[in-house]
């Protein structure tokens, strides 16, 4: 497998629509699978991602989510009408 590069980022943009609420977690699951990361090693990152996504788009607008996996961490940066939040979990 090719070494991870620090600048590899996946960006997801979704509207403030209840039909899209599970998409951020699905994208995280795909990232973990591609990089062969056990979801159990990241604690409650998926739960925090779902809660933060809902909070940031509560007022409407678009949510932008940047996913990045490095050798040491999985980082998710969420930007929307409610502000910007960074979620991070160390890789075991």
Structure in a nutshell:
This protein is α+β, with helices and mostly antiparallel strands and 92 residues long.
What attributes characterize this protein structure?
4-stranded antiparallel beta sheet, 4 strands, single chain, alpha+beta, elongated, 92 residues, 2 helices
Commentary on this structure:
The chain starts with 9 loop residues before the first strand and ends with a strand. It contains two helices and four strands, in the order βααβββ. A hairpin with a 3-residue loop joins β2 (62-69) and β3. The chain is α+β, with helices and mostly antiparallel strands and 92 residues long. The longest helix is centred in the N-terminal third of the chain and has 12 residues, at 23-34. The protein has one domain. A four-stranded antiparallel β-sheet has the order 1-2-3-4, covered by helices on one side. It has helices at residues 23-34, 45-56, and strands at 10-15, 62-69, 73-80, 83-90.
Record the strand order, biggest sheet: 1-2-3-4
Q: In angstroms, what separates the terminal alpha carbons?
A: 18 Å
How many structural domains does the protein architecture include?
1
Largest sheet at a glance? Answer: 4 strands, antiparallel
Give the mean pLDDT.
85
Q: List the total number of helices.
A: 2
Shape: elongated
Radius of gyration, Cα only, in angstroms? 13 Å
- Helix fraction? 25-40%
**Uncertain stretches:** none
Share of residues in strands: 25-35%
Q: Count the E strands.
A: 4
Structural class assignment: alpha+beta
Order of helices and strands: EHHEEE
